[in-house]
Amino acid sequence: MKEPIGNLSGLKSSQINALERLYRRRVPPAEFCTQELAARLIELSSDIRRQVAILINRQGIVEYVVVGDEKGVVIPELRDYPLGRRTLRGLRLIHTHLRGEQITEDDLTDLSLLRLDLLATLLILPGREQIMAQLAWLSPAPSGQSAITDPIIPFDRVDLDFHHFVTELEAELERASQSTAQAGNALERAILISVTVEGTRQEAEDSIAELRELARTARIEALDEFIQRPRSLNPRYVMGEGKMRDVVIRALQRGATMLIFDQELNPAQIRSISAMTELKVIDRSQLILDIFGRRAKSLDGKVQVELAQLKYLLPRLTGRGVQMSRLMGGIGGRGPGETKLETDRRRIRDRIASLERDLQELSRGREQRRRQRVKAGIPIISIVGYTNAGKSTLLNALTQSEVFTEDLLFATLDTSTRRLRFPREREVIITDTVGFIRSLPKSLLGAFKATLEEMRDADLLLHVVDASNPRFEAQVSQVERILEELELGDKRQLLVFNKSDLLTGLRKSDMLAFLRVRHYARSRGAIMLSARDRKSLTPLVDELQRLFWPEETAPLTD
Ligand SMILES: Nc1nc2c(ncn2[C@@H]2O[C@H](COP(=O)(O)OP(=O)(O)OP(=O)(O)O)[C@@H](O)[C@H]2O)c(=O)[nH]1
Ligand SMILES: [Mg+2]
């Protein structure tokens, strides 16, 4: 037999038994609550001077009996009724108000956050005997008020065919959330959130624009964006609790399945936000990890990504099971895997240790191959740059090969190495590397280990920039900063401004922006080219030849 939940202290056992018997009640499908049940709730509630709440499922079975205090009642975690992708919980909440008060803001917050089928309060107005009721339900209108509240009326005048009502409401809510979400192959629908106390609004916007790109790469549809720039960060919710709640309600209204934060959340923040909602809560790092997880093809890449994922998750595994599973569930229910999820921290540590051994093994193999190359005395060039700059395309164009390229972030995770032949039997080795991105957490840098090793060996770093990206300056500095961090700042570098074909359009649409790019490129001695146009590569090839074989003055023949 189920027991009542909540504030039972000081209650007589007869009172507890009476509350417990509420679990035996049944409500017919057409009614939201029977007259007798309503009367009983009022009676029990005034006897114990506390609010009493019941949650009834669609079969009319009482699933939870909850006791509050005089002013309110705390709804427990509805573990057996996860929301998942449904728009409504499948539970209605009926509770008593002791002082004849109207439905409160807290009641409406419960309704919105829990996505209840219906919220009803039962009350007796002062000096009256009759049981009164007030009903509220979620509004299907995609914007504006999230709930609709009826006036208080006598219980016996409530005219509601519950089954019909809830079916219609659910269909309407479903339609409303679908109309905001585009049909497509998106795995998830997300609300993007940036909360920052540093930098300008423009910087926050640029960063969230990039987060949108990351989301697109992970096949997540971004439904909406919130940028908050509070004076100080809230330690529990990053933004203020009330604001966080508004965002969550908004997200549920729009049919979102997850919240993505542009800033890294600490474990405590992920926990408190997850306690507020069943939406998945992830941050930029986790999103990047997820993309890496999908994109890693080689054994080496896979091992490194799993390692980075586990290292990221380990300190975050202090929560209860549910939160843990949500954290590790990943996007579209993937991630390091549901089975690993139940394993405890100990097993994760073991796994980390074993992956690290694998990695060492793999790294030894790489080391050997590299040593051979160095011994052969062939110059090595590493192509580096921001993600999506066109690094792989340039490698392909230079070496006439077919490395995978795509207009998504992190198309390349595994390094590929090609030979570029020059006249007179000269050649260099060119390696393609994973793209950089801002706010790349340290734990993720480890995942680039193979790439990094390649870069250490390089005689020259070819820094490729997407000249058509409005944020190219910031991207150049990001890449330079990461290279500094990797202690590669002193390596010889050549700046290449790629996608020059797109600048013709820019010149027409935004002359000033065009001049800015050109000025910047010239002042930095960059080579302009388009990796899509092989003819435009000649200045680069000439320059490489000049750099590696300066004594030769023979003109390039190609
Ligand atoms: N218009 C134009 N598009 C280009 C040019 N070079 C590359 N692209 C496109 O830019 C996108 C990204 O190219 P990739 O070569 O995959 O970029 P990457 O730097 O290797 O990206 P990651 O591997 O994701 O870091 C692709 O859609 C390319 O077709 C260019 O010169 N002009
Ligand atoms: Mg690439």
From TrEMBL:
Transmembrane segments: none annotated. Residues 379-552 form the Hflx-type G domain. CDD domains: HflX. Residues 166-221, 338-372 form a coiled coil. InterPro entries: G_HFLX_dom, GTP-bd, GTP-bd_M, GTPase_HflX, GTPase_HflX_N, GTPase_HflX_N_sf, P-loop_NTPase. It is found in: Cytoplasm. Keywords: Coiled coil, Cytoplasm, GTP-binding, Magnesium, Metal-binding, Nucleotide-binding. It comes from the Bacteria. The keyword Cytoplasm applies. The keyword Magnesium applies. Its main location: cytoplasm. HAMAP family: GTPase_HflX. GTPase that associates with the 50S ribosomal subunit and may have a role during protein synthesis or ribosome biogenesis. Belongs to the TRAFAC class OBG-HflX-like GTPase superfamily. HflX GTPase family. Monomer. Associates with the 50S ribosomal subunit. This is GTPase HflX. The gene is hflX.
